[in-house]
Amino acid sequence: MPSPRKNILVTGAAGYIGSHIALCCLLSGEYSVVTIDNFSNSFPEGLKRVTKIAQDALPADATEEDKKALEIEVFRGDITLKEDINQVFEAYKSKGGIWGVIHVAAHKAVGESGEKPIQYYENNITATINLLSIMEKYEVYRIVYSSSATVYGAPKQIPIPETSVLAPESVYGRTKHMSELILKDVCDSKPDLWRAIGLRYFNPAGSHPSGEIGEDPRGKPGNLLPLLSQMATGKFAEEGLKIFGNDYPTPDGTCVRDYLHVMDLAQGHVDALAALLRDDIFQNQASGTGFGGSGGKYKAYNLGKGKGMSVLQMVEAMRKATGFDYKYTIVGRRTGDVPDLTADPSLANKELGFTCKYGLEEMARDQWGFNKKYPQGYETKK
Ligand code: WQD
């Protein structure tokens, strides 16, 4: 009789990254998933498809109970509201409780964050504080936090180790840096209870190879890859592709980013959940937080491939995958952009067992795979 799955709350699981994390949690065989999501930038359909992919992966002799355990319970709510978060933990008191939290829900557009700072600080910081407060109330002390490479700003050392100075240059990056500081202080306050891992995402791309789930933001995508993928379906033809600056100190003048397959990124969260139970990784914190050593169990890790690709290289990769002939114009730099964010992922490789199984071609193939299969995304846009 397999041991019962541990309940994991994934905030924002209906989103692009959250849905892939939920899928990898289910596929691991270890966890069941519950989420709180306000669907401000996602659709409920995505979660139904996550369950279907996981159920289809079950062995032929799987029972109805095995299949039911893969259903994701959805609490429609807003993580800036304590009462909305509280309802999840209260409901799960009678279902074995919440074993741990993966906190993903956030606003995440570098450019937009500079135009809407209050919205970004409220959604990204207040939500983190509310979540930690409710977790403490229900004595849930394990969390994996979705942080970001943007906490590094424009680092001198490339590839970037976790010990780099944290000097974010965008509002978005500052919300992630501040949230890491809050997590660290909370862990320092109760070192025998709290355990937290911050995962500094570089640039996720692609989608599950089935093409059933993918990146489907409401409105025009702010990020490069989903925009290129949607353009290949014929969208935004009149506006065309704008490349924000080609005068950066990089090989072809356009910004360099460390793109990793979203399935590799998602699996990194399952690796991190397992690592929360270990003590050794929290011993040498100075190598993993960028804050210097302390008594609490907070540790940050880079999730990237360790290979940088430029905007023009990614346009070419998507041209090959989609067959679409992208026409672009070079325009001015975008606020908050930095020349190069390429990870040194060796700490995560070593301590979490994190690896990137997919390459550039699979990222481009799978980013396109979802939009090719579902040109209108999860539902006809209202
Ligand atoms: C990449 C490059 C743009 C659109 C993302 C996430 C952020 C974080 C890091 C997790 C930049 C250029 C883009 C366009 C362009 N991930 N670009 N024309 O800014 O690196 O941030 O990854 O925390 O949440 O948003 O990604 O795809 O927006 O930009 O020239 O129409 O593509 O200037 O150089 P970014 P991006």
From TrEMBL:
One of its GO terms (biological process) is galactose metabolic process. It catalyses: UDP-alpha-D-glucose = UDP-alpha-D-galactose. InterPro entries: Epimerase_deHydtase, NAD(P)-bd_dom_sf, UDP_G4E. Its cofactor is NAD(+). SUPFAM superfamilies: NAD(P)-binding Rossmann-fold domains. GO terms for cellular component: cytosol. One of its GO terms (molecular function) is UDP-glucose 4-epimerase activity. Keywords: Carbohydrate metabolism, Galactose metabolism, Isomerase, NAD. Pfam families: Epimerase (PF01370). Residues 8-275 form the NAD-dependent epimerase/dehydratase domain. Its EC number is 5.1.3.2. CDD domains: UDP_G4E_1_SDR_e (cd05247). Pathway: Carbohydrate metabolism; galactose metabolism; Carbohydrate metabolism; hexose metabolism. Mutarotase converts alpha-aldose to the beta-anomer. It is active on D-glucose, L-arabinose, D-xylose, D-galactose, maltose and lactose. In the C-terminal section; belongs to the aldose epimerase family. In the N-terminal section; belongs to the NAD(P)-dependent epimerase/dehydratase family. Homodimer. This is UDP-glucose 4-epimerase. It comes from Leucosporidium creatinivorum.
